[in-house]
Design a protein that fits this description.
138 residues, 5 helices, 18% strand, Rossmann fold
């Protein structure tokens, strides 16, 4: 199995469709959540390599959940999934620390390459963080 992924979306059919696409592609979908609070808790439990996170969810939205996940280092990275492509949402996404932004509807042709690139960038970023820690110790 490939990297561990958590899916967070308040629409059950979207979670099911994403899970199916990812599992067929060989990814290990370790959990899915219907709101941001559950997404954060699942990330604490599973430490996924990547989270696919809807922006608009009840209780805790995807932007705020992403901020928590990235600031606490609970996942390798977060890709936001959204029906919104206006400048305001993009600006907020930039501030939330995410590594990717995909506009719905999502299809396999755009999802899998985005995941692969994002996972690659997550590895690079984590390597740089480790190098900085080592340099600071010296």
């Amino acid at each position: 199995m490939k990297e561990k992924i958590v899916i967070a979306d308040d629409e059950p059919i979207t979670r099911q469709d994403l899970r199916e696409i990812l599992e067929i592609a060989g990814y290990n979908v370790v959990a899915d959540a219907s709101d941001g609070f559950d997404a954060v808790e699942l990330c604490r439990k599973f430490k996924p390599d990547l989270v696919l996170m809807d922006i608009k969810m009840p209780l805790l939205d995807g932007l705020n959940a992403s901020k928590i996940i990235t600031s606490e280092g609970l996942a390798g990275g977060v890709i936001l999934l959204t029906a919104y492509s206006d400048e305001d949402f993009i600006a907020k996404a930039k501030k939330s620390g995410v590594i990717g932004y995909l506009v719905k509807p999502i299809d396999e042709r755009s999802l899998i390459p985005s995941i692969e690139i994002s996972l690659s960038k997550c590895v690079e970023i984590n390597r740089m963080k480790e190098d900085i820690k080592k340099a600071n110790k010296k």
